[in-house]
């Protein structure tokens, strides 16, 4: 018992357990209790010292950035920064880059948006590292669709994190970073399409769409990026519903097409896997991936609801400036959707190998094409974002000259 207690103390005091030795047989029994008590008190003293150091972290951050300005109300920032029903928590413009990076630890109306996708990207990275221990992402071409899904998931969460963290710098950077965010979203759409078409597709559906599925998915991915960027560019010259249609409709079309193999599989599963349902009722799982596919669809539809509806802040204006925004719930549901999707694709990669090797070829030539196409799609989407950023730059320059 005492040795276990010492080991716990050694963990918190950042010392190796081997350096804490209980009394040995060479110590006389009359001295042993006092010696052990001295060791315990010494470890407790070190523990309190380390806890004091942890408590000093906020003060250290304050000393690093002693002059960080406070947040502003919506009436104190330009109109293009304002979000409906969010009345406070806006960061001031035209500060140094150091301020916006350090605002990661500041309370403002984008804090939760930053941290939800930052933590989500860390979860995906941990999952990536775990899978890399058992999946040969280098030599097994059939693992490349799963690799594309993991990379695109990391990309969209990282781009979203950067956008929400740094977009308050200025109007120009606000547009640029959210254009980057839309590039990440488009890449995730492509990664989802590849994983679903490669692993989740049923043979009859593959026969119907095999020649058009990936070309259409690629086109919709680029169209979604263009629609989102253009909608953002015309942010305040169009009505809200018009802008939302321009952004949501291409993305909705891309999602419906990219996930159609999963929809088809979910619809057919109750009839074509009746034996699996009976087995599941008796405690035996026939298709372990199907529940994760159902989960990813449910969580995505939930995230889409909160993306298109500013709830609950519309019901409580000014009371969700820090926590409780619909966009924050959108982030959370989308992260859970992505994790379910990765798990489902991994289970399909393990359990459906005879099927997808039959559909896509034993050597995985199709996966090689999709990997190259993924890089090409990235280039096209980045070019769209750069083109729109230049349009924004020209627009802002003309506006400044006219003043």
How would you describe this protein?
- It is a single chain.
- By secondary structure, this protein is an all-alpha fold.
- It has helices at residues 2-12, 32-55, 57-64, 97-102, 111-132, 144-166, 171-200, 203-209, 213-233, 240-258, 260-272, 274-281, 288-308, 326-351, 353-360, 365-402; strands at 72-73, 88-90.
- A two-stranded antiparallel ribbon has the order 1-2.
- α9 (213-233) runs antiparallel to α10 (240-258) and α11 packs across α13 (288-308).
- The longest helix has 38 residues, at 365-402.
- It is globular.
- Mean pLDDT is 86; it is low at 1-25 and 277-284.
Q: List how many beta strands DSSP finds.
A: 2
> How far is the first residue's CA from the last residue's CA?
77 Å
Strand count, sense and closure of the main sheet? 2 strands, antiparallel
Secondary-structure element string: HHHEEHHHHHHHHHHHHH
